[in-house]
Structure prediction request, 1098 residues.
Amino acid sequence: MFGSIFKFWNRRLSTFGNLAFAAFLIAVVSGIPLAIGYDVDNPSDSLQLLLLTDAPGVFFRSLHYWSGQLFLLFTFIHVIEHLSEGSERDLKKGLWIRLVLALLFSVFVMLSGFVLKADAEGRMAQQILNGLLKTIPLLGADLQIVILGNSNSLNLVYIHHVITTTLFIGIVIIEHMRRFWPELLSYVYLAGLATTLTVLIPQGLQLTTSAEIRGPWYFIGLQEILHWISNPLLVVGILTSGLMLFILLRWVNPVRSQKTKRFLFAMLIFYGILTINNWGFRDASWNSLFF
Amino acid sequence: MISESSPKKKRWILPALLVGLAGLFLSVSHFTGNEDPQLIKPSDIPIVMGHREGCFLCHQDMTGFAPSHDPKAIGCSSCHLGNPLAAKKEAAHKEMVKVPGNLDTVSATCGQSACHQDLTAKVVDSLMASGQGLVSVNRYVFGQTQSPDGPGHLSHLSDSAADTHLQQLCVTCHLGFPKKISARIDQKSRGGGCTACHIDYTKAATQQMADYHQTQKLPQLHPELNIKVGNERCFGCHSRSARISLNYEGWHETTLKLKKLKNPEDYRILQDRRVLTFKGADVHHEKGMLCIDCHSARDAMGDGNNYNHQGEQVEISCLDCHNKNPGKFVGYNQLDSDSVKILQLRNREDRRNVEYLTTHKTGRPLINMTREPNGPVKFSGKLDHKVRPLNAPIEACTDMGGHERLTCQTCHTQWAPTCIECHTQYLPNKKRKDHYTGEKVQGVWREYKKDFTALQPTLGVRRDKRSGQDIVDTFIPGMILTIGGMQNNHPDSNAPHKKQLNRYQIFRRMFAPTFSHTIQKQSRSCLSCHKDPRVLGLGEGQITYGAARKQTAEIPMTFTPKNRPHPADGLPRDAWTAFLETKTRDTSTRTGSRPFNRQEQHRILLVGQCLSCHADNPRNTSRIYSRFTLALNERTPQCLQALKRQKKGLRQQLLTGKKRVQPNPEDL
Amino acid sequence: MTPITKSTLFSRKKFLKLTAVLLSFYPLKLFYDISRNSRTGIGKNKQQILSMDLPEGISFHGDIIAVQKEGSPVFLSAQCPHLGCQINRQTKGQLVCPCHGSRFSLQGKIIEGPAARDLTVLSYTTDIKTRQYTILLSN
Prediction:
């Protein structure tokens, strides 16, 4: 059903894969000046000083943010586009696994960026991620240490954000695309779009805890789910099962795979509805218009 | 992937446009706005409340604050919001609140979780913000609801006749009305949330603000947030409606127009050109007491409970201070933390060895009523700290049999503003500026006043909600009015365009209990209740007694009203109830309040019969008072003669129009 | 030369792959050890000091919620028992966690929401001379 839209887009503009790769590269490069100013021992203050005293820093920070969001968005659309065509069958099984891992790492790189802000929202996100990892039996505490490190320091999160995930995602993208660079057109699109967004909607820091605190836009649906389901381990279990289903898409026969894809897509729509409910119809005290 | 058929050039048009647009935005944002301060060092930007406060880059050295709100401790952005992490003016002032404290933003400013969250939640629900009674009584009078009690909030008015009337004529006097001007509080000040009472510009600060508008020089003086709430901060709103602020200082509002005044120096003229005449101040004002000396913070700001009317929210009563046996006391260590905070702010922290009086109504402490342990109670002014003596009521106040239902103000109120007969009409073609929204509206509610005089208040019966007891209290016309221009509870757009004083859909005759704040040491005379028909709610006129030979209680009385009857219900235009009848419906704008019923009227007037002649002789009055039934039986033939003559004289007066003198003293 | 049969190649390749995968666990373990010993940053406070002049009712002080009602105060931990977010708002007599909407009474008892336990009541000591409370934060 989306086939015609994707065809049109790919002909006129640039493919989502190219756009996502371009966004990734712009995000990486715009992150370098930020890393110069960022002090992991004093994260919030170093960012505040950057916003106040470093005009190019303000520009690069917002560019880094927007190119990152566009990276995630275009990656999602790219995955949906190619799954709907069934082209995952053309991938080697090992590459498929690495791509799924890269997708997970992409989500983590975004989330770690959110946490590295070290403002009220970032601290809450760190708390929640910690809490979720803790609930996993046996592996929980170890996962916590490997992924987030000591809860008093953002050092490990910083390192993962800057190099671990970047390296892995970069290598996998290059292996997957079989090119080192995206096409020039996609760069131009991304640069234009990201700069426009940067200038129109610059990014700041959420300093006070009085105002509404929300996670990043891609996790608002998860916030809703965590509100409804009391046991966090159950939520982790559901997410893990969803991930397993997704990985198995490459292995099951086409008929089953089609059904699974439809199911996963329906889950995605449901997630979107939850997101809209939370974002549009809930106030800061979690009172809602509907449910 | 890329299709070979479409020409490559075409695909570049859109991205080129996009990049062009982005470049335009970038250059515009770079070259507009203030220049960044050059070479800002981290030490230029202090850390306040855990974050860098960029406001100080331009607004350093602001003074004028009380210590608790010093920007060095709380910064600027905690109250004024905006973006403290931006160096350019436009970015820093984005979403800044010019007047924090306005109730529409109070949950993010004064009421944020680190500050006064609890308190502002109470204020938002209190009567000064909601005006609940105002709204519900107004709807009741307009016939929209069946009871004067009910929910209502001045910020949530509908487009019904009652609510549009309120919105146009009354609604700016509530705390939710936003304050937009940065200037001294004056007689015209209304609304402003927390700033309505707690902030005031000094003359120097006002001058700096005025200079800023002229020369763009940033002001250095900030108005001070304090609890020095003088009477001028209450005046703007409370010189309206029941006119308490005016009454307290002794001024009565006339219906005179300033333009037509021949001798304006004999009057007091307010900033909004109302003309006031002096009638007599409250004794507490004469002794230098302020509104806040009686009304505690909880009185004014609410205690979190939902009240319908002012009388229910107020926790102070006369008997708290004027009592031979004062109520309970608490020590300093039992005070709640808000009271302790206020003591600190008023520099009374040293008073840890005294005990604090608690109110009868609510049991909460009054911080300016103290005593040394086992010493006498002392009252001290909250702002001037001056100790003033307290007089206990005399025996006549507390031990007067038959008068148990009376309160202090029943006898000690000197006068109250009394308005008779106004007409409110909707004029669909007229336009006016809506004070609330600031826009011009078409379709205007207009009030046409008749009499507005300062008279001794009428008396009636009020059921006190807390104790469940009936109390004889002072009442004034809530309204004796007609309303025209309505259709189906909505303003009628087809109503006539001119004033039509005799055409109306609604007629209402209801009085309301009031505490007019015109207390004096001098109480009213016995006759002023017992033989004054206006005070009994009958309207001005004459009461005469029949000279019944039989010594029974059923002594005939007649009432001859002075004023013409109102066409709507036949009662005199200034009456509340009919003579010797019990009014059961639409008695008052408060549930549980009513005029005297038939028996009560009769009982009260019976005493008046004797007092008409014997009021001045204390020997007689004490006999009348202590043994009334016997005194009735002791009426001499001269008494009866005098009564007959009185009646005759009244008849003659009616026939000839001549006024007859009072009963002949020889008859006594 | 004898031709190398497919099956032999396959099993050798498979064996090498398996060994590689197993060996890779060692660097992962090293990584785990390094992560555990990484920078600890500034430790969290074990206690917090508040002045005795607390406002009446509820007030929020970072990791502590103070409830003062005409007498001795009660200090609750602001950490939500669900996933650890800091509770910083109250509405209509209930404490609300901003992350997932758990609601607690003013005494810290759970009313509604994904959280399953009550808020921890913190112990404290009073110093009348300096007019301060020292509240012990639980880890």
Remarks:
- Chain A has two domains: 2-205, 219-291.
- The interface with chain C takes residues 41, 123-124, 127-128, 130-132, 142, 145-146, 149-150, 152-156, 209-210, 212-213, 223, 226-232, 282, 284-287 of chain A (CB under 8 Å).
